[in-house]
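Reviewers of the previous submission asked for a worked example of the structure-prediction workflow described in the proposal, so we include one complete record here. The input consisted solely of the amino acid sequence. No template or homolog information was supplied to the procedure at any stage.
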Amino acid sequence: QVQLVESGGGLVQAGDSLRLSCADSGRIFGNYAIGWFRQAPGKEREFVAAISWSGGSTYYTDSVKGRFTISRDKAKGTVWLQMNSLKPEDTGVYYCAARPRHEDYYCSGYECYESSLPYQNWGQGTQVTVSL
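From that input alone, the workflow returned the following structure tokens.
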């Protein structure tokens, strides 16, 4: 079973960088795409970025394009979200979740990865706070 654990959050100033990690304690998430979502206080959870099970495709919400980079190392069972040029509006709890590979048979492309519905095994989240 895939068990995801996020880490790397913290309190930073605008313009700083953070690297979040999403580790699979079960080390079997090679057949899962991994997505990052965030939730700010009083707001709904929103999609941030995702990487396909192979690592060959990545997807980003418009507000983070050019600033965030998602990557994965299957051998290490880890996905990273490198966040540069952070802004106060990036503040929130960041969650990673696993999207089964077979979901691509039904739906692939940005709109499909953006939806939280196919994702499973959500982690507990890591807090990111960006101050001015």
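The mean pLDDT is 93. We consider this example representative of the routine output the project will generate in years two and three.
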